[in-house]
Amino acid sequence: MSLPTGTSEHRRAAATRPPVQVAVVVVSDTRTLVTDESGPLARTLLTEAGHVVTAFALIPNDEAGTREHVARLIARDDVDVVLLAGGTGLSAKDRTVEAVRPLMEKELPGFGELFRLISYQEQIGTAAILSRATAGSVNGKLIVSLPGSRAAVELALTRVLLPELQHLIHELRR
Prior knowledge:
Blueprint lengths: L4 H11 L5 E7 L10 H11 L3 E8 L3 H12 L6 E5 L10 H5 L5 E2 L1 H16 L9 E5 L2 E6 L3 H12 L3 H9 L1
Parallel strand pairs: 1-2, 1-3, 3-6
Antiparallel strand pairs: 4-5, 5-6
């Protein structure tokens, strides 16, 4: 696929930036550090792509607690991206999107749209409509909220986020 000149130039410029520093947060009431697969997978994929995981946490599915945790991470100098896994479904306890949306200055609807499209085409069919995956920016940093399943984290990172992560941070810092 041929990219427009501006996109190619921005990607080249972004490639000269230092590695992206990412905080990974798993939001779950049912997983533990022993049973969770999504957090370790996210850390591995990010590290293999040349980025740095500067923080990791597994926190309860609690709207106020999640918002406070993300706000603390955003305030850190060693965090460019807060990547959350879990709490994006439709159940009453799924409140991650509600927790992070008020923190965002700008939403990136294309992230969730593309994730759901690929998820529909390659993994779960029409069940993709159940995902409220979202992304947005605040203070030059990126917040990404994904479903908590291992398959969703792998798809979102490998097919959507990692190919554009340097470019996203570059644009946020311009």
